[in-house]
Amino acid sequence: MKKILFVTSEAHPLIKTGGLADVSGSLPKALAELGQDVRLILPNYQAIKTSGDLRFLCSLRVDNRDVSLLETQMPDSQVKVWLVDYPEFYNRPGNPYLDELGEPWLDNADRFALFCRIAVEVAMDRAGVDWQPDIVHCNDWQSGLVPAFLSLEPRRPASVFTIHNLAYQGLFPAESTQSLNLPGQLWHPEGLEFYNMLSFIKGGLVYADCITTVSPTYAQEIQTATFGYGLEGLLRHKKDILTGILNGIDLEVWNPESDPFIPQHYHVASLAEKQYNKSELQRRFVLPVNDHIPLFGLIGRLVEQKGIDLIIDCLPDMLSMPMQLVLLGSGDKAFEQRLQNLAHVYPDQMAVTLGYDESLAHLIEAGSDVFLMPSRFEPCGLNQMYSQRYGTLPIVRKTGGLADTVTDTLPETIADQTATGFVFNDASASSLLEAVKRAMLLYSDKKIWASIQTNAMTIDFSWRHSAEQYLMLYRSL
Ligand code: ADP
Ligand code: GLC
């Protein structure tokens, strides 16, 4: 049995802004089911939703700051969660990274450096909780300094660093190295320095014993200039310790047979029932209720990564066809505005909900016929997998985890029953439009459509296989 400290800045259902939370909520549970002793550590944000006991564990003093560790549990599991309680940094409105106006907190470097220091104290068994991990598994830049600090410790646990998104690197002015009291040995171009900036993510990439990312294709892509954001050279240099392990999905949270957020449960043998969810979705978005018109859905952060501009560019052409489109998301204010304007132009065909709404996200997965995910890059992506499980065929761009989890519908993949969606190559509105047209055409053939839904719904996207891969990796360290 391995003892694993899982260091993360968000975990569903405690706190979530995106896919990292889904992974941090479900991978530790899957590892625990494989008999491992996993504990999560994350900051005690104001918005955190704990259920059950929250108890004081210990207090520790780091960098002249008095910090407490609180203990709770992941709901429906034995996995323990340790919350780093330092109200001055974490007890604020807004989300883990941004203030209420959507701007990054000005002291993010201090907030996450403190979080990393506490994780290291726990990892070195200096927090007084009498538990030392064999493996410290860090995720994204917010935990990047952990492998760096650990590298300075004799007799330390092994470290794993997972890249969920290389576009977010945690870059701060060089002066912060002083205010953060960073050990001088770490400050050089082969260390935490990145073009005279302090890079949190480099702490993970340079100092971890092993690097993973969330799909095999993305593991290759980030070694190229297009996807590497200036870190491709370093990643190529590290290629022997870099692997891609595909995310799984939580089959209990995302299950059309038992989903508490949808009005009608269904499964692969009762696909006709899915239409009740479609009607409800049309009602919720105040669109004409009509089962025959194909309904496209989209959920996500409205940022360039997700190819929102491609959708905006081809919307007039798309909506010249008989279809409906519902969108749920928030992000870039300019995208939000343009989408809302378009919804006013096409009130019978398109509707937008801005914001974050978990129950609505489930209804969109269940009620749509097609799910749009034309990302410019996508380290893994979860919604395309949720969609397949709900018999909602995804349209995706061939990149990262989307390329690894969706099989394009072609004569041969229809014949061998592997088709699960629609895949296009170029990040252009015209390529997306062509895929949309293919989906529209196929939608009119109910029999083939149902057979592709069946293929999609019966794929095994469970965590088990991926958790086993992580375990093999931990054992190799
Ligand atoms: P990313 O992590 O890049 O945002 P993923 O596809 O990995 O993309 O995961 C996004 C997760 O966040 C999914 O669970 C998705 O349903 C959820 N999500 C994104 N935006 C919203 C929103 N506005 N409302 C509800 N859930 C959302
Ligand atoms: C990131 C990526 C997304 C991935 C998620 C979980 O937010 O953008 O593709 O699915 O992390 O690994």
Report on the architecture of this protein.
The protein is α/β, with parallel strands linked by helices and 477 residues long. It has two domains: 3-248 and 464-476, Glycogen Phosphorylase B (Rossmann fold); 268-457, Glycogen Phosphorylase B (Rossmann fold), CATH 3.40.50.2000. The protein contains 19 helices and 18 strands. It has helices at residues 19-33, 87-90, 108-123, 145-150, 176-179, 200-207, 216-221, 225-228, 232-237, 274-284, 308-318, 333-345, 358-367, 383-389, 400-405, 411-415, 429-443, 446-457, 464-476, and strands at residues 3-7, 37-43, 55-62, 65-73, 80-85, 135-139, 158-163, 171-173, 193-194, 197-199, 210-213, 242-244, 295-302, 324-331, 350-354, 370-373, 393-397, 422-424. A nine-stranded mixed sheet has the order 3-4-5-2-1-6-7-11-12, with helices on both faces. Helix 10 packs across helix 13 and helix 11 (308-318) runs parallel beside helix 12 (333-345). The mean pLDDT is 97. Adenosine-5'-diphosphate is lined by residues 18-20, 22, 299-301, 328-330, 356-358, 361, 380-383.
Keywords:
477 residues, alpha/beta, Rossmann fold, 2 domains, 9-stranded mixed sheet, 6-stranded parallel sheet, 18 strands, binds adenosine-5'-diphosphate, binds alpha-D-glucopyranose
Helix and strand topology:
Blueprint lengths: L2 E5 L11 H15 L3 E7 L11 E8 L2 E9 L6 E6 L1 H4 L17 H16 L11 E5 L5 H6 L7 E6 L7 E3 L2 H4 L13 E2 L2 E3 H8 L2 E4 L2 H6 L3 H4 L3 H6 L4 E3 L29 H11 L10 E8 L5 H11 L5 E8 L1 H13 L4 E5 L3 H10 L2 E4 L9 H7 L3 E5 L2 H6 L5 H5 L6 E3 L4 H15 L2 H12 L6 H13 L1
Parallel strand pairs: 1-2, 1-6, 2-5, 6-7, 7-11, 11-12, 13-14, 13-16, 14-15, 16-17, 17-18
Antiparallel strand pairs: 3-4, 4-5, 8-10, 9-10
The chain binds adenosine-5'-diphosphate (ADP) and alpha-D-glucopyranose.
